[in-house]
């Protein structure tokens, strides 16, 4: 049976066009096929990889546009924000592409199987010594650099720099729809599978990361340990979701852009919507966009 699944997956890979830009590189595609054919993980992880390779997110605004890139910065290149929503629900999806092109970033949603067989995702707590977003929870990731061949390269490179995760241990399977942060940073969530968690020994970069921990992915579809903060802008109400989690007598708060991405990732992985209402804001995009622009 497992042999049949492997043949089916290899056939699927050869015929699919995967959204994530990692497959634009022949070397990257070859790496993914090799990793699938030699994966040591469970049958469930193998099936999950097959499922996620079939996922196709809605088209992103301005992907093929050719215009000058605005230099939009956020938090020294790290992807942390109080707000973050799927790009399709923001005004960016409807405006002319010549208006602006947000700076691109990628985060790694690294999934593995827990001791009880549940899917878990690796997160970080930012150093309390940082001048911005200190002590906040984030996914490993950051802004794309010139040498990055793809979003997957950006996400896995940043994960190695931040927490010592060797990219060769991560099987990148797909990317989700871009998210737009409050500061107009286009964030691409990259989903990767860590088949053997025991091979990963976290080595946090102390200048950026205070701790590395993991949480059950399904948590982001449940009402348990969740609360919300209703906010209002020009008469339009929207919700900010906050998730409380405790591990090894340490308490973590996951919210903002990170929570939004993980809610979407959990919905895709488990193929069902969250048990709570997702209420998105109606943003207003200013006519002039520069490095100081913030959606309001």
UniProtKB/TrEMBL annotation:
InterPro entries for this protein: CoAse, NUDIX_hydrolase-like_dom_sf, NUDIX_hydrolase_dom
Protein's UniProt keywords contain Magnesium: yes
Pfam families registered for this protein in UniProt: NUDIX
One example GO MF annotation: hydrolase activity
PROSITE patterns: NUDIX
Domain Nudix hydrolase: 102-258
Needed cofactors: Mg(2+); Mn(2+)
Coiled-coil portions: none
Domain of life: Eukaryota
Keyword terms: Hydrolase, Magnesium, Manganese, Metal-binding
SUPFAM superfamilies the UniProt entry points to: Nudix (SSF55811)
Protein name as it appears in the record: Nudix hydrolase 15, mitochondrial
Lineage: Eukaryota, Viridiplantae, Streptophyta, Embryophyta, Tracheophyta
């Amino acid at each position: 049976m497992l042999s049949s699944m492997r043949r089916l997956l290899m056939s699927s890979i050869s015929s699919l066009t995967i959204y994530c830009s990692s497959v634009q590189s022949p070397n990257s595609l070859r790496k993914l096929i090799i990793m699938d054919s030699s994966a040591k993980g469970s049958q469930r992880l193998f099936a999950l990889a097959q499922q996620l390779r079939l996922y196709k997110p809605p088209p992103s605004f301005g992907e093929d546009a050719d215009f000058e890139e605005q230099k939009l910065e956020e938090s020294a290149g790290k992807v942390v924000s109080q707000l973050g929503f799927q790009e399709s629900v923001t005004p960016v999806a409807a405006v002319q592409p010549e208006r602006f092109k947000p700076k691109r970033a990628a985060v790694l949603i690294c999934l593995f199987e827990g001791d009880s067989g549940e899917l878990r995702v690796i997160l970080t707590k930012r150093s309390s010594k940082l001048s911005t977003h200190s002590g906040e929870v984030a996914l490993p990731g950051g802004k794309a650099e010139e040498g990055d061949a793809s979003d997957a390269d950006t996400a896995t490179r940043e994960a190695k720099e931040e927490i010592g995760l060797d990219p060769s241990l991560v099987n990148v399977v797909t990317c989700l729809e871009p998210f737009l942060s409050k500061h107009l940073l286009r964030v691409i969530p990259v989903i990767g599978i860590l088949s053997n968690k025991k091979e990963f020994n976290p080595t946090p970069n102390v200048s950026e990361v205070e701790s590395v921990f993991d949480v059950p992915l399904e948590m982001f579809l449940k009402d348990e340990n969740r609360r919300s903060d209703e906010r209002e802008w020009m008469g339009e109400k929207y919700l900010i979701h906050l998730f409380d989690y405790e591990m090894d007598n340490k308490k973590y708060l996951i919210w903002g852009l990170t929570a939004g991405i993980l809610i979407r990732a959990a919905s895709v992985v488990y193929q069902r919507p969250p048990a709570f209402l997702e209420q998105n804001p109606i943003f207003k995009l200013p006519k002039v966009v520069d490095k100081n622009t913030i959606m309001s």
